[in-house]
Amino acid sequence: MSLDRTAICNYFLSLQDLIVSKLEKEDEKKFHVDSWERVAGGGGRTKVLLDGSTFEKAGVNFSDVSGEFSEEFAKQIPGDGRAFTACGISLVLHPKNPFVPTVHANFRYLTRGNRAWFGGGVDLTPYYPFREDVIAFHKVWHKACTTHSDVADYDKLKSWCDEYFHLPHRNEPRGVGGIFFDYLDKNLDQVWSFVQECGNSFLSSYLPIVQKRKTQFFSEAHKEFQEYRRGRYVEFNLLYDRGTIFGLKTGGRIESILMSLPLKVRWLYDYQPTIGSKEAELYEIYLKPRDWAREV
Amino acid sequence: MSLDRTAICNYFLSLQDLIVSKLEKEDEKKFHVDSWERVAGGGGRTKVLLDGSTFEKAGVNFSDVSGEFSEEFAKQIPGDGRAFTACGISLVLHPKNPFVPTVHANFRYLTRGNRAWFGGGVDLTPYYPFREDVIAFHKVWHKACTTHSDVADYDKLKSWCDEYFHLPHRNEPRGVGGIFFDYLDKNLDQVWSFVQECGNSFLSSYLPIVQKRKTQFFSEAHKEFQEYRRGRYVEFNLLYDRGTIFGLKTGGRIESILMSLPLKVRWLYDYQPTIGSKEAELYEIYLKPRDWAREV
Lengths: 296, 296
Prior knowledge:
The structure is a homodimer. Chain A has one domain (5-294): oxygen-dependent coproporphyrinogen oxidase. The longest helix of chain A is centred in the last third of the chain and has 26 residues, at 188-213. In chain A, strand 5 and strand 6 form a beta hairpin. Chain A has helices at residues 5-24, 71-74, 131-147, 154-164, 188-213, 220-239, 242-249, 254-257, 278-286; strands spanning 32-37, 42-50, 55-68, 83-95, 102-112, 115-125, 166-167, 172-173, 177-184, 264-266. Chain A contains nine helices and ten strands. The first copy, chain A, is globular. The first copy, chain A, is an alpha+beta fold. The interface between A and B is medium-sized, with 29 and 29 residues.
């Protein structure tokens, strides 16, 4: 069974437009748009906003590429042959206010030879979390999965996310998780419905948090902690992230791939949060996998 | 033939003291010292200075560790068996003033089974380079090699450095290079003399540049460009650096390994230097391998 690739690409493209138009309502700045072609095949459209009033850096990328895997890289991917196609949407939003979490979402459709599959996920990385925000975020993804329980087992996708967004060298999760899936190649029609459900759910999982927290007062110390924690985001993306490595190994467009990295980051030495502080609370309560969707 | 490992460790340890004492003369702050033990064997001494008057972040690390390579990692290293020892000094100095370049140096002695070898190198990463500084730096390393030409072929070690400190995804060198060597396992006595020559040459290759440039006026724009270029340092260290990956794969002390990352970093989107600017000069003149040591 194979799906209509053009329809999938068009969905991702219109989802990019929708998300960007809604994000622009939250910021004084507009996104900059770059359409680009890839020498080895295909291209994409990158929408990016820097140094805005709400978003310090926001990147929403659409790409539709094709080409050949390198021999070495081909071994790490299921299927046969070296020819591949990949289309998808990928976004990372780094807000200015440390009380608004960073969010990442990515949905993609890949083919290699006769094989086709979907991958994707959404995860939240708070700096100064609010319990109700974290629960509300997870509930949206729980609902998206239970609506498509024929192909999306929430508990599985939630655990997959916790396992994937994990920094082994720090033995620390990147954030509070969400859902993650890859190589979903059975019942593609149903998976495709589920992926659209996810795409359509993104704004409702994240925008309410932005709207609620973006005007909250923050100090220089809050900002420094946010910049310090962003270092973990960089470490994860450069050391482990599948999408980043996929892009770098397949000759992707560097500026679109590394758009996920925050504008300002800092690396301290041997930072330890003060006992009983809000910073310590992040580590003790939130940076531990937990079934948030079922809490009230 | 095997060398006296204790003598080598002691040399690296006293070199750390010497370098730190000289660097402290250039800054209002003192280094913080952490002695640490490694669960799997050995330990080290980390000296680090943050947010000083001359150095925004300076880390000089000594380590003397032993243990077992993981099966996967063992395949990437010469020799037999999984037991290894490694001792060495590693430093990265990120100055505050954008007219002072960042410098990195590392010298190490490794054993695996019956095999023993030295590795190391020094390289300079300027933001706003001065031709005379770059030439003077390279001349020091040229001299260190020619004094030990029985084991150190300058042209080879210089090219090795250019090849090693290269960011394939950007097709860009990390900086202006220096020298690099690894797996030097022949004529170990002579190599050991060469390594000491290198250790003893470090301060004379770098301190004069610090002293000459650290009081130069800089603007916020100079600082931003420095922070932007530091992003390349992070990309290199997390994506490619052998020492960083060695540390992460052998259960090293994370804070000592990632001490190499700058305090403040920024990632812009699709930055291009203005034609004819000092920033463009960095790319056009300096970020191209060149035989600086033989220029006048």
